[in-house]
Design goal:
The protein is α+β, with helices and mostly antiparallel strands. The chain folds into 2 domains: about 270 residues, DD-peptidase/beta-lactamase superfamily (Beta-lactamase, 3-Layer(aba) Sandwich); about 90 residues, D-Ala-D-Ala carboxypeptidase, C-terminal domain (Peptidoglycan synthesis regulatory factor (PBP3), Domain 2). Helices cover about 30% and strands about 25% of the residues. It is globular and about 90 Å long.
Amino acid sequence: MRKKLALFLAVSLFLLIPFSSINARALSDEDITAPAAVLMDASGGKVLYSKNPHEVRCCASITKVMTLILVMEALDSGKIHLNDMVTASEHASSMGGSDIWLEPGEKMTVNDMIKATVVASANDAAVALAELVCGSEETFVSRMNEKAKQLGMKETVFKNCNGLDEDGHVTSAYDVAVMSRELIKHKKIYEYTGIWMDELRGGKTQIVNTNKLLKSYSGITGLKTGTTSKAGSCITATAQRNGLSLISVVLGSESGKQRFKDAAALLDYGFANYAMYTPKTPQKAITEIPVTNGMSESVKTTAFVNDRFMIKAGDDKNITCSVKLRESLQAPVKKGDKVGTIVYMCGKEKAGEYPVKAAEDVKEMTLTDVFGIMFRFGYTGK
């Protein structure tokens, strides 16, 4: 009965939340009511808007973004598998706050534990996964902090793996955007963050996603919410439209309703003012470069512009492209050697840079090679 009531209240709460868009081209700090926020381009990591981005704050269950990074890495490495069974320990079962009411000794697959962590923000499931990956939550948290340092998250210190309030457990809006960007590199996470409602324990437990933007925002793909008395209402939201992928982070909102409104406003601003540009490989990058002292007089070049870059909306007319190639090369030349550069500029700002490479090997001509050529053509010296 308690589970069905919780589900009913969650759905009812969603229906009462009105989402409205502000003028996306006039975003200001007054429009974003949260004390700290960041909008980041997921592809390149560029910050498009920020408000107190490095202010140290609590982040509640946004913590689970880092927990999920380590779980995804363990899956990728083969250390754990989705069908592995996870046994809930006394410690995992003792977690308060959001949970799925794990009993000590209860078993559940890794897949269901991830689903519970992402969709229901289950603190007990997060701890159970941490213990599976590292043997204890303490060791896992140490790994979380190591990963944070690797990612350059300077304002972050983790004290637990689920985000329950604890002295010294802090981060910043910028750091949250950085780790969110790292998590969505694991594309499989979208299979969980996009779930609105699902079931566990063979249908006995129903779960509903805490991210209400899934039902109200076009292009939303995730990612994680969090709320505690110290952190306030927080969210890191990811969305994609027309190839543009954005990360919107809001920390310390006064209410869940306000965090969703702020997150949506940030995303609206990003999609209205930025776009992805798809460059083409310039024909003059595909040519031949003279080779000195080589078995061939020249080497063919190759270039492949295989990614896109972000520009301000409407700036495509200001895109220019230049190709710089080496005038000549000294043998030996190996296939794949960099022999030039393609540079795309948007006005005075560099937008993208791509290498031009040698398409083949060119051996250095040796004395033996010279005599071989002379013999082949019948040179006698007379």
